[in-house]
UniProtKB/TrEMBL annotation:
Protein family per UniProt: Belongs to the glutaredoxin family.
Domain of life of the native organism: Eukaryota
Gene3D superfamilies named in the record: Glutaredoxin
SUPFAM superfamilies the UniProt entry points to: Thioredoxin-like (SSF52833)
UniProt-listed Pfam families: Glrx-like (PF05768)
UniProt name for this protein: Glutaredoxin-like protein
InterPro entries: Glutaredoxin-like, Glutaredoxin-like_YDR286C, Thioredoxin-like_sf
UniProt keyword annotations, A-Z: Electron transport, Transport
Native source species: Fundulus heteroclitus
Length: 126
């Protein structure tokens, strides 16, 4: 039987397998990010497209992937032959991020910048 607990940040109901489940802790850890809260405001039709240019191994990319886990995003492995153009452009700069096809940032996730841009996009969609 599932119990549900409401998140104080976003009011989402979180199914808990027990009253002491760590699922709420994980949700709150992710939910506390303003950008995540904003991502929930976008309708499916107007979701921004976030692209992460990466390769393996890349410790900075792994950190970025972890931070972006709650977001729907696209990953491009620049080491694959079909992505040679991106390898030539970004081999020394990964992780690199594009938002809606435009360069956004490189070398890591700037949460404040991402948050601001998502807010701007949300205002445009109102």
């Amino acid at each position: 039987m599932y119990h549900f607990k409401s998140c104080a940040c976003c009011l989402e109901l979180i199914p808990l397998t027990s009253l002491f489940s760590d699922r709420m802790f994980v949700h709150r850890t992710l939910c506390g990010r303003p950008a995540l809260q904003l991502s929930r405001m976008f309708s499916a039709k107007s979701l921004p497209i976030l692209t992460l240019f990466t390769k393996d191994p890349c410790p900075l990319c792994d950190e970025a992937k972890e931070l972006l886990q709650p977001f729907k995003h696209r990953q491009v492995d620049i080491s694959l032959p079909e992505n040679r153009q991106w390898w030539d452009k970004y081999k020394w700069d990964i992780p690199v991020f594009h938002l809606n096809g435009q360069f956004l940032m490189k070398h890591g996730v700037d949460a404040a910048l991402l948050d601001k841009l998502l807010q701007d996009i949300e205002k445009q969609n109102l």
